[in-house]
Amino acid sequence: MKSAVSSSLLFNSKNLFNPNPFSRFTLLKSSFFPKLTRRSITNHTLKLPSSSTSAIRSISSSMASSFNPEKARVPSALPLPAPPLTKFNIGLCQLSVTADKKRNISHAKNAIEEAASKGAKLVLLPEIWNSPYSNDSFPVYAEDIDAGGDASPSTTMLSEVSKRLKITIIGGSIPERVGDRLYNTCCVFGSDGELKAKHRKIHLFDIDIPGKITFMESKTLTAGETPTIVDTDVGRIGIGICYDIRFQELAMIYAARGAHLLCYPGAFNTTTGPLHWELLQRARATDNQLYVATCSPARDSGAGYTAWGHSTLVGPFGEVLATTEHEEDIIIAEIDYSILEQRRTSLPLNKQRRGDLYQLVDIQRLNSK
């Protein structure tokens, strides 16, 4: 098995040393291309005979095959699965968070119920919605999710509400305690109230921007070790938490596993938020030709950590479909999965990747074979 490092960039020596990589086209007869006349040129557009157009498509297809696009993902990318439904509404609950944990849980419950009453079949909550966002607070507010019940009142509420309302909930994230370790964890509950998946934040938020912001999640939190993708009643969803969105490799793995939608509960700050929050969402959606949804806490200027807000839904062309400002809000927006195939047909990136030059290795899938 090739290592992730050694197999990340593979070069074809024949291409490197061929002085004229387009020499294969010199065999084409000039009669293939029609002669240009004034009539054949209208507004700088050349109209080719249908036979010529078909031949060009054939050449393009032949070139793509020689580039081995299927080898650009290791293992090979999975086909996009047929979703359980084509259209549905998502609710993004941008919530205010206080030091009162019971109030935060009740407040989130009310917001989920409101989103569902407005037609949401999928509800996304913010990062760290049951606790202030601080290293001092994480140990105090942490819950034993696996134990459930009184040991995890936040997830107990999510389970009850998802089952009662028959909706899917991406439960933002809460501090999770496992033995002597703490994680920043997102729980996904199905419409039956069952825990479908649990994502522990993979990339910890350790940054130092002099004069602006310094935060080190690693002082209290442990990094997760597993990408998380889950099949739900509203499609196949890849999960990341906040800082995870900066790492395109994770999103690419989810896309190669057949994700329809990526959900990132996140709490970007007022330093990096204006610069990167929307940019990263649109980049992840555009590069992978899928939907991206994010949900932030509402801004509290008096808090120790000030969230940027601006929860957003982005479409597979990188278009912002719905967003808000920094105050509390509930966004209801439509997701239409039929657009995914339209976009991928218009821009067939999966068929144009250069497997002869580079590869993305999904270590987890490779090792599970």
TrEMBL record:
Keyword Hydrolase on entry: yes
Domain CN hydrolase: residue ranges: 88-337
UniProt key word Hydrolase: yes
Cleaved signal peptide residues: none
Keywords: Hydrolase
PROSITE patterns: CN_HYDROLASE
Protein's name in the database: Omega-amidase, chloroplastic
